[in-house]
Structure formats: C-alpha cells, structure tokens
Write a structure and sequence with these properties.
single chain, about 80 residues, alpha+beta, three-stranded antiparallel sheet, 1 helix, 3 strands, about 20% helix, about 30% strand, SOD_CuZN14, signal, SOD-like_Cu/Zn_dom_sf, metal ion binding
C-alpha cells in the first residue's frame, strides 16, 4: 500500500511537469529516483517522449518489493 501511494504521488508530480505542451520535435525526458524510506524499495524510472505526436514510454528498475503482483496508476490532468 505504501508503495502504491508513493508511485501515485510521484506520477502526480510528474503530470504537472508535462502540463506544458511539447513544441515541435523537442524530445522530453524525466527521471524519477525511488529512495528507500521505511522499507527497502528503491529504483529508477525514466519517462521519454520523442515529440508531441509520439506516446510516452516508461522504463526502469525497482528493487525491494515483496513477492507478488504490483502495479501503478498513471492519470493525466487536463
């Protein structure tokens, strides 16, 4: 649950960074560092968009999660 809240907060902050529309063919990259706090979850997530017409891609690694399925939610503010 704590991990889900952390990811939701991170992506909420990220959504505000992408509030300004991309111009032309300018690539945009954002990197999120997950630092351990009360647990041992850590990692890096990178978001990239080549231009305004391309989708955003996610890549990265996360370590220290408990065994089992995990997920995250991404929302877009308008």
């Amino acid at each position: 649950m704590l991990f889900a809240c952390l990811i939701a907060a991170v992506f909420g902050l990220l959504a505000s960074s992408f509030a300004t529309p991309l111009v032309g063919d300018t690539p945009v990259t954002a990197t999120i560092r997950l630092e351990p706090n009360v647990n041992s979850v850590k990692g890096t997530i990178t978001l990239k968009q080549q231009n305004a017409l391309q989708p955003v891609s996610f890549s990265g690694t996360i370590e220290g999660l408990t065994p089992g399925k995990h997920g995250f939610h991404v929302s877009r503010s308008q």
